[in-house]
Amino acid sequence: MPVGRIEYLHLGPMLFSEFLLATGHEKLCAFIRDFKIGDDLPVPLHDKLSGLLLSYIVVGGMPESVAAFAKSKSYRDCDFIKNSLLATYKDDFSKYGKKVNLQHILTVYEALPKLVGRKVKYVNISRDIRSSDLSQALRMLALARVCYLVHHASCNGIPLGAEMDASTFKPLLLDVGLLLSACGLSMADIPSAEALMLVNSGQICEQFVGQHLLYRQPLHKHPELHYWLREKPSSNAEVDYVINCGPRIIPVEVKAGKTGNLRSLHQFTIEKDIHFAVKISSERPSLVKAAGRMPDGRAYESLILNLPFYLVEKLDDTNADFLANSIVFKEAGHAGK
User: Fold this and answer.
1) Phi/psi at 20 (nearest 5 deg)?
2) Rounded Cα–Cα distance for residues 223 and 151 (Å)
3) 261-302: per-residue pLDDT in tens?
């Protein structure tokens, strides 16, 4: 390689704001770009963005699929393109045959949709293929960018990757629209946005948030994303994603439905002694103080930022600084954390 003469940019699927721009919703794209936590967000606007979010999840962020939807507004055209992409990936695997068994790659590839957002256990992929062979096939797919492996990290400080556990990870597929098609679903199979969010116990939501967090960094940086897992008898805990905004570590929990507690999130804030966390859900944005006690008696007190899915792109340094200096945050008594 001609060292110093090549620049690398890491491109992922189109973001939701880019989807809005491509489909003629320039004003909504500008609204998301300029939105600050604490700004008013009327219910009709929230409903409009939530409806367009449903369209994005079905269409996905692959440029050809988005281009087809922008032109015809036909989900059927998008389904044709996405299924063609999935089939093409499958046909392309034969080029790796000299490095890894083709059947192993196909086995892992076909299992990927049900593995998204879940800790990989090779026995759940195949009981007839050795774990080492499945591991090699999975890592080949990750190198080909067909999927991405989100590794567990201890999250005691930055960089988060310094305490990464290479053997504990959960995969994301390349794109949420491809995931939906790989699950055999189309718009006709989905009665409502809420039903879509609950597909496969919320895997669709975790995929959507994960791919946006992966590519929230400058394009010259290699995409990196981690999560936190604690496995103890009768005391398991998992935070869907952990990111950093500058020196600040931020746990991010994804909630597909309208119910569910934040026990793991509070567990993380206690163990890491941090007092700010993010919940991504279908709710309108809000900033609230949360305080209470865990079942073991330990107290927690933190500030929870509730963000709707369509505003996940707002998790950047600017907003982190805004939150750190907000009146609510100072009132919580943790302005320096």
Assistant:
1) -60, -45
2) 12
3) 899 999 999 999 999 999 999 999 998 898 888 888 888 888
Q: Where are the domains of the chain?
A: 16-331
pLDDT of residue 256: 83
Say how far apart CA 109 and CA 230 lie, in whole Å: 27
Quick one: DSSP state of residue 215? Answer: T
**Cβ count near 20 (within 10 Å):** 25
What pairs with residue 241 in β-bridges? 252
C-alpha radius of gyration, the chain, whole number: 20
The set of residues, in sequence order, having a beta carbon less than 8 Å from that of 23 and lying 6+ positions away, is 52, 55, 66, 69, 70
**Secondary structure of residue 313 in the 3-state scheme:** helix
Q: How far apart are CA 191 and CA 182, in angstroms?
A: 19
What is the residue type of 203? Q
Name the H helices within the chain. Answer: 16-22, 26-34, 43-59, 63-72, 75-92, 102-115, 131-143, 176-182, 193-197, 203-214, 263-272, 317-324, 327-331
Closest CA to 37 of 219, 303, 334, 333: 303
Amino acid at the residue 158: I
pLDDT over 60 at 8, yes or no: yes
Q: What is the pTM of this model?
A: 0.90
Contact present, 321 and 292 (Cβ < 8 Å): no
User: Which among 194, 210, 185 has a CA at the least distance from the CA of 13?
Assistant: 210
In the chain, DSSP finds a helix count (H) and a strand count (E) of: 13, 8
How far are the Cα atoms of 302, 308, 319 from residue 326, in angstroms, in the given order?
A: 14, 20, 10
Average pLDDT over residues 140-145: 92
